[in-house]
Amino acid sequence: MRLALLLTALALPAMAATISPQPADPYLWLEDQYGAKALDWARHENARSLAVLQKDPRYQPFFDAALAIENAQDRVPVPAQLNGQIFNFWQDATHVRGLWRRTDLAGYRKPQPDWTTVLDLDALARAEHANWIWEGAGCEEPDEKRCMLSLSDGGEDAVTEREFDVTKSGFVPDGFTLPRSKMATDWENADTLLVATDWGPGSMTDSGYPYIVKRLKRGDKLTDAQEVFAGTKEDTWVNPMVAVDGQGNRVALLQEGLDFFRQAYYRVLPTAVERLALPEKSAVLGLVDNELVIQVNEDWKTGATTIPAGSLAVLDMGQRNAVPQAIFIPGPRQSLEGAAVTHDRIVASILDNVRGRILAFTHKNGKWESKPLDLPDDSTTGIVSTTLANNEIFLSVTGFLTPGSLWYANLDTDTKPEMIKQSPPRFDASRDVVEQFEATSKDGTKVPYFVVHPKDMKLDGSAPTLLYAYGGFQVSMLPRYNGVLGKLWLERGGVYVLANIRGGGEFGPAWHEAALKTKRQNAYDDFAAVAKDLIARKITSPRRLGIEGGSNGGLLMGVEFEQHPDLWHAVVIQVPLLDMLRFEQIDAGASWVGEYGSVSNPEQRAFLEKISPYANLKAGVKYPMPFIYTTTKDDRVGPQHARKFAAKMEAMGLPFLYYEAIEGGHSAGANAKEKAEEMALTMVYLTRQLMD
Question: Annotated catalytic sites, by residue?
Fold first, then answer.
């Protein structure tokens, strides 16, 4: 343990008697993720909590409603353009694990598309006696005939990859097959893969990801693969990525994760690799006209040119010392959410004061010109699918009270985007309205938040209110339609609040960096400020206010639970980080040092000790009773944090409810039934705490 080594190195003989060892953690045994004793403990806590929540008369109606929405046949089938057709992965009550299927554009436009099954995952799981969960397909471009399918055991991040022929709807005999591992692969060409996987002892980083990339040729055994690049165990990961454009240009890259946000990019040449002069905080998003498309997350200085953080830039790969060109520079309340490439265009998703915009870029006379696409205002917009074969794109439009819709646009024409599909309403939104407010944080920063509430809401502090936030990893929290939330919460008079606290990406890299590492208290102060603002506006009161968050948001919930126990009456802590003094040693925790800091740094350790929910839980404090939810198969955050926190609460005689799903990975369930169960349990808990 790095902390122990540091203390040993610094301790002088004369000081030895004054150094107190850290007290032993009595719940380390719960870190044994699949250990029999730990699983028995989890099952016991599950039974105790389910006896409360599932026996509530509201549970079954909530579950039935959630499952009906999750399995609804009239959902919009999300399209993916592949091999000249429209592919879709679909799950419902009959196809629990899912169908991979295809049709053409004309067939997709029909109210009931004419689908052809490409792969039946339920049938495959039955035939192989496996618990397969779909994790996606990586297809060789530009032909898109062969794909590496990623299949997970029960929803964990580790996958098995197998080569699949989409033109024949079957696995390739004697094709590429990669055994279970956390891995990354891409196609160097139709007969060669670049593979980062577990090559044996010592080949994985401290974060649990591969750092060695090898070239695997068709027909060779995995042991025959030739090394292309090796990072270090201290890296977060090393990933291969091959960028291809519609003109036939191809650039093979390696991404060496120096930490979660900083990476070095290398170009793979026939016999060597060459580092590219990209800023460490940047992301390569594609290739167009042999120009790399790059999201810039720190100022990029090249000679007399500076491209500001948050910009979208291009870099000509045909010139040895090309100067990057900024094609989008955000304004003060704007941010770049992401971008995708088509045959010869770039499509970018922009936030303007947390409202979505889509820009299309065209290369003319050596410059990139942008044009906004005509989509509904005051909505969340997103890029769903693009293809290198043409300039046809699919976009999404949604909002808190507007069912998600799918839009089609052909960038070769001047016609406006066309809505071609929309999900029907899942709840009665006619009685609700959305407002956006700002709270003032402890340091004076203005923090925006959305409130979805009944039009006739009385401002007397009586409204049952659920406040949600994430606040990390430059992830933006945007208005989205949630049928289950609407049916089980809004339709029953509840208020929903989404807070855009620092740590997210709503206003670009600076908004994220304002809550990095030892500055993270800013995010916690932002969240508390939103809660206090809700109370000051008399929308709600501590008795009727509940909070919810997962993963990094689960850490947020744990901190708020302890720092402001008097502000809420319900706290939903989902798949959380909670032991911030040991997070680097649990599953993929070491990969997040760039976000949280490290206990090996004295200043950062002092801050982590100050805010760690597991370290700061105290007996005798009147905390609200939380609902702690996690999954056994989570190999990213891991169930260890939630288990230990709950066990410590139990030892202190503090009330809590705990549920650990055996399947599902780092998400709420591996299928519709498990998702509906989690949502029903959560809504019963919130109803009991805030509405009763």
Answer: 551, 666
